[in-house]
Design goal:
A 7-stranded mixed β-sheet has the order 3-2-1-4-8-6-9, sandwiched between helices. The protein has a 3-stranded mixed β-sheet with strand order 5-10-7. It has one domain: Spore Coat Polysaccharide Biosynthesis Protein SpsA, Chain A (Alpha-Beta Complex), CATH 3.90.550.10. It is built from 8 helices and 10 strands. Strand 1, helix 1 and strand 2 form a beta-alpha-beta unit. It is an alpha/beta fold and about 230 residues long. It is globular. About 40% of the residues lie in helices and about 20% in strands.
């Protein structure tokens, strides 16, 4: 079984498209959908009740905490994560299932494309190409909007770091490689909202680069503080 976990917070404009795309997946009869809401004030939970198998409300609004909470109640041997403003392609679930037939693989991700029509879609292609290269050199840095982990491997590294408010996806990308191989599969294609970057599309690619740099700064700062406690 694959357990797909979706953290939400006021996502009534996007969530239904995400959930419908998951329900239409081939092999979805052997999967479950878990929505972990951060206390939405709109119709997010009501929409989730129409499609999700499990719904839980988190006392804290944090993607890491919400994802881990969903993972704790999951029944699947594979934990898939997708954001509420992201739509899975028809081959998304099948790609995940077939990838994990290789027992050496602990985690898999795939390409992301804009959900909306934008002027510069090549920016996403550029980011996908960069992520594919990083996976090949065993330095994966992918987005949490679409990825999947073998459940056993996920808990061996204690899931997402709940102390991180940003770049939690890049952090787990690097930690999971210590448990097993990370794969990038083109079949695991998803379409994520470009809403944060509609005013300036170039921000999409540079935001990815900024997140990477920001994560490395925080990571090195934490290492320094552990080595030099006050």
């Amino acid at each position: 079984m694959v357990s797909t976990i979706i953290p939400t917070l006021n996502e009534e404009d996007y969530l239904e498209r995400c959930l419908i795309s998951l329900r239409k997946q081939k092999g979805s009869e052997n999967s479950e959908i878990i929505v972990v809401d951060g206390g939405s004030s709109d119709a997010t939970v009501e929409i989730a009740e129409k499609y999700a198998d499990k719904i839980v409300v988190s006392l804290e609004k944090s993607p890491s905490i919400q994802r881990n909470l969903g993972a704790r109640i999951a029944a699947g041997s594979v934990l898939a994560f997708i954001d509420a403003d992201t739509v899975a392609s028809k081959s998304w679930l099948k790609g995940i299932i077939e990838t994990f037939q290789n027992q050496d693989i602990a985690c898999v991700t795939g390409p992301l494309f804009p959900l909306e029509k934008i002027k510069r879609p090549y920016l996403y292609s550029l980011t996908n190409a960069l992520q594919k290269i990083l996976v090949r050199v065993n330095y994966p840095l992918f987005w949490g909007a679409s990825c999947a982990f073998r459940t056993e491997a996920f808990w061996k590294i204690a899931g997402f770091d709940e102390k991180l408010l940003t770049s939690e996806d890049h952090d787990i990308s690097l930690r999971i490689r210590k448990i097993g191989e990370v794969a990038f599969d083109d079949r695991i294609r998803a379409f994520t909202s470009h809403r944060k970057f509609l005013d300036k599309e170039e921000k999409a690619f540079f935001s990815y680069v900024k997140d990477i740099l920001g994560y490395f700064f925080l990571r090195n700062l934490r290492v320094h503080l552990r080595a030099n406690p006050t």
